[in-house]
Amino acid sequence: MEADFDPEDKYSWYFGMLSRERTNNILLEQESGVFLVRESKTMPGDFVLCVKEEQKVSHYIINRISAGGSTRFKIGDKEFNDIPSLLNFYKTHYLDTTTLIRPAPRARLLCKYDFAGKDPEDLPFKRGDVIEVISEDEDEWWTARNSNGQVGQIPVRYTQVVSQLNLESTQPPPPVSTNTQVQYELPDVRPSPMNESHRPAPSLLKSSLPLQVSQPVVPKCVPVTLPAKAIVILQRIPSAYDRRQLRLEVGEIVTVLKMNLNGQWEGSANGKEGIFPFTHIRFLTTEELRNLNT
């Protein structure tokens, strides 16, 4: 089976501080090649590549090695400059019995109340929104991503799980429709006060992400109707082995055709259609569109 993920999109494969038992529960019923990357609990600062292989879940330690002012990541006897390079290598090279095919599915949450947020790292949402869990940082504060690709902290008690990880599904999350609103029956009550003392510090949250994987520039949340024009803000030269990935040059205009919840959007540029991480583009403003058409 052909690999179906972008190693540069860390929010598709990074699951934070998961236990080994929880990881096994997520991966055991998946097909071979489904994987995730978690932080090591026994070796702080290191990571673990967890992969479903035949009838088992394998846990491969990724050691972070610092030498001469640079950091490298070692798995077995192989070293890489960063984790995306490591994952890209195992798209086409076997670990034990499989290559990497796609990241594990994530839990999705229904937002029960409005949350405006008060800190820059918060992820605001409205009652009825559906978001996906990136990492469970603390009991009361998790990191999540909304349908526009924005990532931030959310208060857990303002949400409820609408679908546990669908362990029988092999399909990616459905595309985001800009013209559809999700309707749910929710109780008309207010949440109890949040416990700010258990909130993870912003610096701790950011430092928990794998080194050498930069924080993305998240597109502003603007109303769009697809197809929509966007401009490339980060250069992207994809692997030569994955012909579905679009090459992007800063300043190019991309037509966005579909916005998928996994962060891999579909679009066209220079006469070619393909997929690309949402973090590399931003939608054009009304004024920019007007100038483009004149």
From TrEMBL:
Residues 13-104 form the SH2 domain. CDD domains: SH2_CRK_like (cd09926). Residues 102-164, 223-286 form the SH3 domain. SUPFAM superfamilies: SH2 domain, SH3-domain. InterPro entries: SH2, SH2_dom_sf, SH3-like_dom_sf, SH3_domain, Tyrosine-phos_adapter. GO terms for cellular component: cytoplasm. Gene3D superfamilies: SH2 domain (3.30.505.10), SH3 Domains (2.30.30.40). GO terms for molecular function: receptor tyrosine kinase binding; signaling adaptor activity. It comes from the Eukaryota. Pfam families: SH2, SH3_1, SH3_2. Keywords: SH2 domain, SH3 domain. One of its GO terms (biological process) is cell migration. This is Adapter molecule Crk.
